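The freezer alarm interrupted the setup, so I double-checked each line after restarting. Inputs confirmed:
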Amino acid sequence: MNEYTRNTRNKHHSLFVLGFIICFQITVAQEKAKYKLVIMDYESQLPVVGAHILSLDSTVLAVSDVEGLVWLNLDFGSHFMVSAIGYETATIQMENELHLIGLIPNSLELGEVEVKAKRQHKEEVLDKINLFPVSVIDIQRLKNRATNLNEVLSREAGTIIRNTGGLGSASTISLRGLEGNRVAIFLDGSPVNYTDGSFTLNDLPINLVERVEIYKGIIPAELGAPGIGGAVNIITKHIDHDYIDINYMVQSYNTHSGSFIYKKVINPTFELGFGGFLNYADNDYTMLSPFQPGLEIQRTHDRYESYGLGLAPKFNHVWFDEVRFELAYYTNYKEIQGIQQNIRHAHTHSQILQIEAEIEKEHFFSENLSFTYRMIAPIMWSSLVDTSLYRYDFSGDRFISPTGRGELGFYPNRSENLQQDFQHIVNFKYVPAKNHALNLNAVLRFSKNRPDDPLANEFAGQNITTFPADLGSNVTNLSYEFKSSHGKFSTQAGLSYYYFTTNGRNSNILGVGNVEQEQITYSVSRLGQNLSASYFFTTDLLFKAGFQHAYRLPAPNELYGDGLLQIAAPALRPEQSYNYTLGIMYEHRYSALRDLKVGLNLFHMDLTDMIQLRGNGVTTAFTNVGQARIQGIELEAKYDITENLYSFFNATYQEVRDSQESRPGTVGVKNPTFELRLPHIPWFFANYGLEYHLDNWLGTDTQTRVYYENQYVHEFFYEFELSANQDRSIPSAWTHHLGVEHSVWNDKLSCGLELRNITNELVINNFNNPLPGRTFRIKLRYTTF
Amino acid sequence: MKRFKIALVSFSLVVAISCENSDDTDVNVGENQLLIHTAFESSSFLGTHEGLNNPEYTNSEAFEEVAYPYTYHFNNYVFVSPNFYGDVVKRYRLDETGNLTTDGQMVMEENSFPSNIYFTSETKAYISLKDKAKVVVFNPTTLEMTGEIDLLGTEYAIGTDNNPDPGAIIERDGKLFIALQQNNSFATSENGAYVLVVDESSLTIEKMISDTRLDWVGRPGMQETFTLAENGDIYVYCLGSFGYVQGQHHGFLRIKNGETEFDPGYVFNMTDLGIDGVEGGVTSHVNQAYYDGGNTMYVTAKAPALALDQDFFRERPFYSLKLDLINKTAEKLDIPLTNFYSGDITKLDEQLIFSVSSETAVGLYSYDLGTGQPSSTPGITVDGDPIYVMAIK
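Predicted 3D structure, all chains:
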């Protein structure tokens, strides 16, 4: 990651490695203003309570509270000191609205690190102190950019977002070669990819997000959810003072999105936040039909709308340090765009109502114990509506539906699906001594799934949709963390217990004829382990290593079938993986405004019992059929060519290969795909960017930034590469993007323009699903922060 | 099955099937004797092979196709119909050494589910567009489409939908017999067996015949749905909804020579037929078939007792059977049980060839018609499940 913090008199510059590298500049007020400091222990990330903020003549200005929080009224650019017992005193220059200061324990003798400690930002703390391989994207640095969350994630090494269309289309995160359910998605630490998929990450405007943490290969215990390929944790914005943030973006294909946040601190113990967002897109781009050679199709049935509202009261220091509630409502409507056929009426819509409560307390009945509890209770309604009596071809001709009614399958649909979730997340952290910490985390989840479609049932003359299922799961993690007294070495070891039980009906079509469907109860438990370590060879050179033995429990939709063609598979075993990672990070500072950062990561995963959907041309079923070995390398580099010109580069080469020597279910029969690349997975991709930034170019308190970025994804095949005559592939794509941002009034009002895919390159990242071509965007934003 | 194997039978009745389709056809094929189509997860691969002289087949030079297409061999051509995975019917040419080259394509209507192809001559063939309720007439040499039979919304659709789901086709005595599958889902059909009778020259629909003793005429893509016996009788295979619908039955009906109605005196109900050596004693449906003349048909058929349909790799519920269509008997052959992605049968040099994906071997087993003995191991190992194997010699 990278940040520029500067004003006309004093310029500071910092580049940080592991996170995603996007330049961003903040110009702060030159007059006296209220600034926020968060004082943290550089090693443990725990708040430092009672730290004194001193003027240069040692006058005490303020003292940090239990959260390490301090508010200061100071002149911009002025200096102050931070002093606390047991820590090196740091001298800081006021240059940001928000300072996250990592104080170095007295015993840590790391010379230059002291300098860094003065200017630690939260991301660097996470990048360097977190023992796990993690990349942190500071979305706040992109707050003026005309972009979205998927695109931000796609710039990251090892990460590809795979879409099937424009805004609102199905998309999955591919992380180090794994995707779908293998990559756990979290929103503020709560798993979200267990739902029916109604809510997609791209619904969330980036201005509601503070940062994104991408855990590669190893999922930290505190997230407490099964996933074997890593995890993405979206941290939404939580700012503890009054502010307003409102933005609106318009782009090609009649796409609109906007969001607002209003935050009010009523008194020191009570805050109220209110926010919302909207998305709308016609997605009416043209594409060449993958099924009808030469046919150009304009997508005319791909409209997408989504809206969200949230209300979040928060109480501070009411015995618990923090008690937070959140009530959120979300709804969407999506037309279904046909590719092989012209769908004109079928659509889906869904609603989610979610209640969330969270309590936190440091020193929970003990000075050394901290406690966090979170409860999340979403209720989701979703519906597929497909009742048309007619079907259409792309020339516009209408004909009666061959199946009698509906455009999609054999039966019309007007489904009424209900899913209720109840999640509890409990975390205890015990620090018995300065260099030791124990963490106990448990995630309990109860879920009810009640699908129903009376119309389809009536049309079929039997029950084909009403298959209720209940699910319960528990993931409990216990971890121990040790940091050496000199601060150079850290390690963590953990145990994870997975338990999963579900009860539902076998929707096997073998039961056609209104035969009572078999009730299936499925329970499984597993034990996983992880071990991580990091070591500072020098203050500039950090080494990390990690191991995890992880499981992914089968999802309900994989177990129960769909009542029609997908057969229930109640004997599925959890997928398991042994993950190994190694990373080296190097940072060299040439001057206050010029940095070089290079990171190199190696990873190796052995996956067994991979769950795949397989078909026989008539029916399908999930089965444990796959075994893969993933080996890869990621290279990241960020370099300030000059004080105003910044560049970044990352490249990922990953080999995801079939490691099954014998065919599944045979006694020693040669597997023809052994050692071949698993199909339909990108294996080489790279990003490069250049950014030029200027302050006060178009007036006082203005910032201007021009950037160019490109991404290359090499061709990959839809099937194993078996033949010299193979032509079903996803072609290489090299896309180029150009953008400019300009802000005035010290960044309070900004405008961002972006032209994506300048050359209108054909981009496909899922077979037979062409994506939008050249796209233009403009975004306006106003904030009081 | 989808190829023109019916033509391999050397009975030359007054069938409109041209002699080019028969085993005696002067196909200019030299070295390669077998067409092998293998199935993988997302694609399939079409190639040719020398035959039993070479014990190993790989896909290294094969052509990639959709996952589960229907493949038809006619003269020096191979046609691949994409099933519901696409709209383009591809044609390949077999050269003198039996090597394949791409040789044109036909773009069918959008989302039309091109399935069964039936060739009557070098200039005339029919293809069913299942999801468009159409049968299209085309010239297999020029690939020109010359006519169609549109069945959408006609009275021939049974049940709640508007599509009688045309499938397999055969022509006899100037009349086309078109299987109407009457599906009410992809894997199930309305009760009963339905066949459309059409005047071949004018494409005029004469009538729809039906029978309630068996259900769902035709295994999708399987040309042996209609088998023309030496005496001119047509045996009609009925799928019985793969065994998924209780009360439905699979087996054979018959349309006697000179008749255009089902023979009320004949039904071969395989669902209720006890077969010695078959787990559970019964079968649910036929996967592939080969008619060897003399009212003898070889099939691979699924024993539901061996299948949960949950793991298409590890479950191997398909037996190889020898059927006597007149006496309505079935005999289990000593060919290994095979899985969902295999089980095709062809004939090469007086041997039957069975494509097998078993627990111990994947490849082509031979069956000596003279001795009635199968090979103990595959004569040719195959990389990938051999969904189709056809003699092209």
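Quick read of the result. Chain B has a mean pLDDT of 90.
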